[in-house]
Write a structure and sequence with these properties.
This protein has one helix spanning 2-42. The longest helix is centred in the middle third of the chain and has 41 residues, at 2-42. The protein is mainly alpha-helical.
């Protein structure tokens, strides 16, 4: 059934995009913290 494989591909893609969004969010937080620390340590 081509429809089933199509649906499976969509669900896989959505899971991957959600995971990547969360991962990028975590990295963004970490980068911001490091950035703030570097600014504080420069004073």
């Amino acid at each position: 059934m081509p429809f089933l494989s199509y649906f499976k591909g969509i669900s896989l893609f959505s899971c991957f995009s959600i995971f990547q969004y969360r991962f990028n969010g975590e990295q963004e937080k970490r980068n911001r913290i490091l950035f703030n620390l570097s600014i504080l340590s420069s004073f």
